[in-house]
Design brief:
The protein is an alpha/beta fold and 347 residues long. Helices cover 27% and strands 26% of the residues. It is globular and about 60 Å long. The C terminus is likely disordered. Bound molecules: zinc ion (2 copies). One zinc ion (ZN) binds next to helix 2.
Length: 347
């Protein structure tokens, strides 16, 4: 089968022919129909994120149908439309016991990170990781739930965002669009920040009460203005560059929570006096729990959150996708659809 594989830091991803995975006991074989691209792939490419496993098939936002089951799994599951939960924890450590598999120090698998993922025609995962999808969400629309919406759900919980609080969503991509809608649904007042007008327009459509074009004005100052000097209760930092971290910190109010989701090569600097006298918190949020995924699917099913898909491409057009991701030109997610080579437009 065709697969897009990572070969190590600063090496090109390659489209290769590899053998179809064999589901092991307790696993299902998923025929992939849609895989969303995540900004994380750029961090793999640059070497910023190096998990020391290569070669490995990329892609962790995976949707498909169960085509076969291995020993220990009921054949009733064959034909199920599913979305993959991409962590498989050890099941024994403290974090796994309380459902925080994303923090497991002994992961058995992490699809698209240290285990073969979704930029391929098939993937084999434990049965519990293949979560059923409702009929009213299409495969392509479901793909961005896997990381984009689940990450937003998880970060919202960690931030403990309350009703009528001010939430700044700094950086509007797959996670950002989810955060805007979730924060709005929780009754918070949402300020979306981006350097791209089209993304801000979409964020406003999805519930942002204010938008700030970071390429034109100081975000910290503008947030202070909007909030009558108080600053934001929560800033979701989805970018993590020196510039955005400085502005995010400047936008934070008393008892504010600065939640890091995005990162870059840059480090965060803050004088502790700011944290002390304003009782602020700085925290990080990574991935999501299996339960967060169930919640995310339910939120999309009920129309509380809509996924935003910019375009779909064939699996073989992955490099074009990567370029679009690098240039920041996408408004929403790019979804790869596996298909035969003959289906690619000849241009
Ligand atoms: Zn992701
Ligand atoms: Zn564990």
């Amino acid at each position: 089968m065709k697969a897009i594989r990572y070969h190590g830091p600063q090496k090109a991803f390659r489209l290769e022919d590899i053998s179809r995975p064999e589901p092991q006991a307790g696993e299902v074989l998923v025929k992939i129909t849609a895989s969303a691209m995540c900004h994380t792939e750029l961090h793999f490419k640059s070497g910023l994120l190096d998990l020391g496993v290569a070669p490995v098939t990329m892609g962790h936002e995976i949707v498909g149908r169960i085509e076969a089951v291995a020993e220990g799994v009921s054949s009733d599951r064959i034909g199920d439309r599913v979305i993959v939960y991409y962590y498989a924890g050890c099941g024994r450590c403290h974090h796994c016991r309380i459902g925080d598999e994303q923090l497991c120090p002994n992961l058995r698998a992490e699809y698209g990170f240290i285990s073969d993922g979704g930029y391929a025609e098939y993937v084999a995962v434990p049965e519990r990781n293949a979560v059923p999808l409702p009929d009213n969400i299409s495969d392509v629309d479901a793909a961005p739930i896997g990381c984009g919406v689940t990450t937003a759900v998880h970060a919202c919980k960690l931030a403990n965002l309350g009703m009528a609080e001010w939430a700044v969503v700094y950086g509007i991509g797959g996670v950002g669009f989810g955060l805007v809608q979730l924060a709005r649904a929780k009754g918070a007042r949402v300020i979306a920040v981006s350097r791209t007008e089209a993304k801000l327009k979409k964020a406003a459509e999805l519930g942002a009460e204010f938008t700030i074009d970071a390429s034109r004005i100081s975000v910290g100052e503008r947030v202070r203005e909007i909030t009558d000097g108080g600053g934001a209760d929560v800033v979701f930092e989805c970018v993590g560059t020196a510039e955005t971290m400085k502005e995010a910190s400047a936008a934070l109010g008393r008892r504010g929570r600065l939640v890091f989701i995005g990162y870059s090569e840059d480090s965060f600097t803050v004088h502790p006096i700011q944290l002390v006298v304003f009782e602020q918190k700085v925290l990080g949020s990574v991935g999501a729990t299996l339960d967060d995924l169930y919640e995310a699917i339910d939120l999309v099913k009920r129309g509380i959150v809509r996924t935003v898909v910019d375009r779909t491409l064939r699996l073989e057009q992955f490099e074009d996708g990567l370029k679009a991701l690098e240039q920041g030109e996408l408004v929403g997610k790019l979804v790869l659809v596996p298909g035969s080579r003959s289906q690619i437009p000849s241009s």
